[in-house]
Design a protein that fits this description.
The protein contains 14 helices and four strands. By secondary structure, it is mainly α. A four-stranded mixed beta sheet has the order 1-2-4-3. The longest helix is centred in the last third of the chain and has 38 residues, at 258-295. The structure holds zinc ion. Zinc ion binds at residues 206, 210, 284, 287.
Length: 349
Amino acid sequence: MAVSAVLGLTRLGARLVRLMGAPVGNRWALQVVLGVFAVAVVGRLVTLPLSAYGEVVRHRYGLSTRSWGLWTRDVLVSTAIDAALTALALVALVWLARRAPRAWWALASAGAAVLVVVGSFLWPVVIEPAFNSFQSMPAGQLRSDLLDLAEENGTPVQDVLVSDASRRTTALNAYVSGFGSTRRIVVYDTVLDRLPDEQVESIVAHELGHVANGDVLTGTLLGALGGAGGVALLGWALSSPRLLRRAGAQGPGDPAVVPLALLLVAVGTLVATPVQNLVSRQVEARADVHALDLTGDPEAFIAVQRGLAGSNLSDPSPPAAWRWYFGSHPTVAERIALAEDWARLEEQP
Ligand SMILES: [Zn+2]
């Protein structure tokens, strides 16, 4: 945020963009691309010591299994992917602002919605393989039990994938991503190695809850709506002569607007996070109830929650402010209480 603010609210950012653009003959699209990369690299370099220290702490507590080589590779690949996607989006934005000086924000807003939907669909096949490799769960009792569970759930799946998460972490996790033909359930290999079968089933049942409720698609559509609204707001902010003057940009069609646009996006993300998590907590609680209904096994569910909190070293009952801002899931204490309530209701005639 500090780097974004310094580059976006002073002429330093605009100067950086022009400096990058000079050797390529100041062609606007190249200037935007190089400007985005320059801002991304500066931001990454400034935050690098803190990231490295975070990795040292994760190593110290046995959470990370990443070698420093792999860590470096992850930093490079994620910075490059982020910068490339951001550059594409900003080239489109500046292009629209140049072509349609009055209606560009509306067109960009519609474009953002489309991008979110396409991105979420392609994510599992384009981005995830850049970090992990995925294998079908090996044939056996557990695999056929899980496929039966999916059948019983009314959402048959072709396959359950196992990711090589243990290359990086000792944490236990599973998730569902994509929709339509790219939908997939992924379980970390750490889960298969360390948890008994009924706990793996409980975890997969939670993911099947997301599938049954169409949560990825709903989340994507909400994200598209949010993205469209966010870009419309961005358009409004970029029409402010005061902000533009501060940033040293002539208008939204000037490549020098890049650092200011990136700052506004960063601010938007900061504000949107708690709203997103408020929705996420509801969705996650619903998937938990679904998992309990599907497996009828609150003991395994509670054991999973305990195990997850233990091996991921997460606070079972974090402070309210943390929960409100960062909590994408109900807390461990809340999830265990939910399972106990479920069991109590089940016992009553
Ligand atoms: Zn979930």
